[in-house]
Amino acid sequence: MSKYIVNNSTIETILGWIHGGEIAIPEIQRPFVWEASKVRDLMDSLYQGFPVGYIITWRNPDTKLKDGTHAMGKKILIDGQQRITAMTAALLGKEVVGADYKKKRIRIAFNPLEERFEVANPAIEKDAAWIPDISAFFQKQFNLFEFVHQYCTKNEGADTSRIGNIVNHLVNIRFSSLGMIELSHDLDIETVTEIFIRINSQGVVLSQADFAMSKIAVNEEYNGVDIRKMIDYFCHLAINPADYHAIKENDTSFSGTPYFQKIMWVKDHTDSLYVPTYSDLLRVAFTFKFLRGKLANLVSLLSGRDFETREYKEEITEASFRKLEAGVLAFVNETNFKRYLMIVKSTGMIHESLIRSQNVLNFGYILYLLLKDQGVEQAKINRVVRRWIVLSILTSRYSGSAESTFEYDVRRFHQASDVEEYLKHTEEGELSDAFWSNILVTRLNTSVSSSPYFHLFLMAQIKSGDKGFLSKATEVKHLIEERGDIHHIFPKKYLQSKGYTNRNQYNQIANYVYMQQEINIVIKDQAPEAYMKKIEEQCQQKTSKYGEIQDMNEVLANLEACCIPSGIFAMNADHYEDFLQERRILMANKIRNFYYSL
């Protein structure tokens, strides 16, 4: 069976199909992202008769209705939306929605004397040689003879016949041919994606979430349009809350619905710890409600696919949209979202800089929604979700085949008679004594400051309320929140002067510590044995050059909290390698104690 059909259609015909609903624009690429100059260049290419590429549609399968008849599937515009939107804006004078969600006109001007296009501007509007908006040529009431007469009157010396031919040529670009590739509904997402990449000259990759959004957006019968907008606007407002009023004013049909009321709160939400994309939101809602991990399956279910009979049934489409809507509503629910964030923060993950994997946060939210939906008591939900988030980071659980692991985990939790027992069983299998004493210690042997294991150590410090290195009152939490700097316990310049010139040596995370900048400046490039001796003197003399600590008991407590070996008082470059190994062991022990305290 052919994977696609290639046809040629005129621009006027394709625009008519879109207007009539035969081709549905899913708006997965909203808002309109082209610069006005690119619209101008497209008009010039059409005028010159140059090819402007293909548009790609993917036909929704015909679904079987309860009475045995079939509903014809619409064609979904997969690629070419920006070109079609540009043509609609320039030729028909339609408004487009900009990046700020405000509607605007893109006016393309034309100079018949020079046969040149430009983006309209005040200077062009005052120049009689220019037509400031070519959409005037495509209005039903446009009269070519009358226009040519008026134009030549305003522009002395203009040849009437030549101007008439040029304008007629411009008007006829609506009959220009545009290639259309219609992909078969039988194709799976992977094949559609591959075709898209190979055809698209820019190599833009559409994700499975994009295809899912397209399926949602073209469905009017089961609130698909509103579901898509709820997803899109929630994620946009989470990043750009200032666009709230533009969205409300420009999309009055949606802003008057209960769906809009349910996401309004996010415009006042300033926490940036978990800022989901539409892909994140879709994945969480889908996995939570369908107990599946592969978004490709969502596309099939929204199409009505029966995985056993391989038929497409309307009742499956309806049930799938109902479940997805429930999942999306659960995700955007203010109480759910904020309670989940509180659980995340209770792990010590208080700043986005501590997050390496969005998948960890996504599955944490899936687990929260699932357990809440099952009626698990809140205290138990808190404990399980907290530990699972940290366990996922410890074991890099979602760094590989995330979709498959999502599905495995959500189904096991769903089937578990006691979720805490299931968690304990997982811990016994993955967090053995060997993991804590050997594997984790080895993973701490790295120079990557963004290592998730260093982040876990910092989370442990935050959870314990630890102070920064040699700080009396300033906590690690405050240093991270204020974007403080990470410093070296064995100063970098000191190590370099002793032959440690490789950055992988002096930048070991076991040599990292959060420290107040003013203390680091005073330490400068001294050996630990040198500056720690001065700390001892400070405690004896009650001075404050190296921070505010003036009591040796506080110094020792600070060293312990920062997992710095007590032998630091006598350490120099000769002891550096031993120091690193000893501190890794101390850091691993702190992370272990932190985990089991959650």
In short:
By secondary structure, this protein is α+β, with helices and mostly antiparallel strands. The protein has 29 helices and 13 strands. The strands form five sheets. The chain has a five-stranded mixed beta sheet with strand order 1-11-3-6-2, sandwiched between helices.
Uncertain residue ranges: 63-67
Biggest sheet record = 5 strands, mixed
**How far is the first residue's CA from the last residue's CA?**
56 Å
Q: How many DSSP-defined strands? A: 13
**Overall pLDDT, averaged?**
89
Structural class: alpha+beta
How much of the sequence lies in strands comes to 5-15%
Organism: Brevibacillus brevis (Bacillus brevis)
InterPro entries: GmrSD_N
Protein name: DUF262 domain-containing protein
Domain GmrSD restriction endonucleases N-terminal: 18-215
Secondary-structure topology with pairs:
Layout: E1 4-10, H1 11-20, E2 23-24, H2 36-48, E3 54-59, E4 63-64, E5 70-71, E6 75-79, H3 81-92, E7 96-97, E8 103-104, E9 108-111, E10 116-119, H4 122-126, H5 144-154, H6 160-171, E11 177-183, H7 189-199, H8 208-217, H9 224-239, H10 244-250, H11 252-255, H12 258-263, H13 278-290, H14 295-302, H15 314-332, H16 334-345, H17 358-373, H18 378-394, H19 402-415, H20 419-430, H21 433-443, H22 452-464, H23 476-481, E12 486-488, H24 492-497, H25 503-506, E13 512-514, H26 517-523, H27 528-541, H28 552-561, H29 576-597
Parallel strand pairs: 2-6, 3-11
Antiparallel strand pairs: 1-11, 3-6, 4-5, 7-8, 9-10, 12-13
Protein name: DUF262 domain-containing protein
InterPro entries: GmrSD_N
Domain GmrSD restriction endonucleases N-terminal: 18-215
